[in-house]
Amino acid sequence: MSPSALSSSESAGHMPKLVCFDLDYTLWDLWIDTHITPPIRRKGDAVNSLQDRHGTELGFYAQVPEILSELKRRDIHVAAASRTHAPDLAREALGLLLVPGQGKDDLVKAVTFFQTMEIYPGSKLRHFKSIHKKTGIAYSEMLFFDDEARNKEVESLGVTMCLVRNGVDRKVFERGLAEWRKRNGK
Ligand SMILES: [Mg+2]
Q: GO molecular function: any one (predicted)?
């Protein structure tokens, strides 16, 4: 895609083939296995908002839906890698959460943005080896957003990890892209 075809907010320049996101404190501001008590539910067609048994709200950080949408539109593979101890609940949340889709007034389930999901406890080296095996995409073509410094170990594979402090937003997304371009000489 030529830069002129991008809308003003979209990132220009080389893009990785795959962007992977951690879930807790990267896409939403809680630990799903600690702070959320099932059952979770959505009130009607509420956008980017679920509630648990006690009324605790679960939703993506505000700019996450538009970033996911941009990646989909640009045909970039989107993955999730989480080491939560509540994998079923995390999957259920992504399946229930409604976010804006590609068309005007379209709402889609958040899960539809994720082509690959690796959600289980353990080292994220395992998550990324599995993503690589499933997609055939080179590690050097992967950009990963995560809030835990220990997960930087995936860089030993060739993945670029962008450390997130207060969740993913447009600024963090651009910083991650810049780090990936610099690391790969793009
Ligand atoms: Mg996290």
A: acid phosphatase activity
Residue 24 is a catalytic residue: yes
Buried b (16+ CB within 10 A) or exposed e, 79-92: bbbbbbebbebbbb
CA 180 to CA 178: how far, in whole Å? 5
What token pair was written down for 88?
């079923």
Distance of CA 142 to CAs 12, 129, 171, Å?
17, 12, 19
Q: Given 24, 52, 146, 147, which residue is catalytic?
A: 24
CA angle 68, 140, 109 (to 5 degrees): 20
Q: In b/e form, how buried is each residue of 15-32, taking b as 16+ CB within 10 angstroms?
A: bbebbbbbbbbbbbbbeb
Concerning whether 52 is annotated as a catalytic residue, the answer is no
The alpha carbon of 1 and the centre of ligand 1 are apart by a number of angstroms equal to 32
Kindly report, residue by residue over 33-92, the tens digit of the pLDDT: 999 999 999 999 999 999 999 999 999 999 999 999 999 999 999 999 999 999 999 999
The answer, yes or no, to whether the previous bond of 16 is cis (omega within 30 of 0) is: no
